[in-house]
């Protein structure tokens, strides 16, 4: 599944609500998809806040770096930047 598909399922289940705790989403992702905490927390951010990330990570170095402030949610196979 792509991140976008998981976000859509989370929305259908009401996990995007303001009172939903990260732990509830993490438990769902672990139980249904065997997703670990690190990737799960990344999805929690997208589910609760959308695909935009803090600009401090754009063009930076380190594990949280990115070239854009908007995360690609449709899987690496459909990423135009990865097409040859």
Describe it:
This protein is mostly helical. It has one domain (3-72). It has helices at residues 3-12, 22-33, 37-49.
Main beta sheet, described? Answer: none
* Count of DSSP strands: 0
Roughly what percent helix? 40-55%
Spatial shape: globular
List the helices and strands and how they pair.
Elements lengths: L2 H10 L9 H12 L3 H13 L35
Keywords:
84 residues; mainly alpha; 42% helix
In short:
42% of the residues lie in helices and 0% in strands. The protein contains three helices and no strands.
């Amino acid at each position: 599944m792509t991140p976008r598909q998981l976000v859509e399922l989370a929305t259908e289940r009401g996990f995007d609500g303001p009172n939903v705790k990260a732990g509830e989403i993490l438990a769902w992702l672990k139980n249904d998809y065997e997703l670990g905490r690190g990737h799960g927390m990344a999805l929690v951010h997208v589910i609760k806040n959308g695909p935009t990330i803090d600009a401090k990570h754009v063009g930076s170095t380190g594990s949280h770096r990115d070239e854009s402030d908007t995360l690609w949610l449709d899987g690496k196979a459909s990423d135009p930047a990865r097409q040859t």
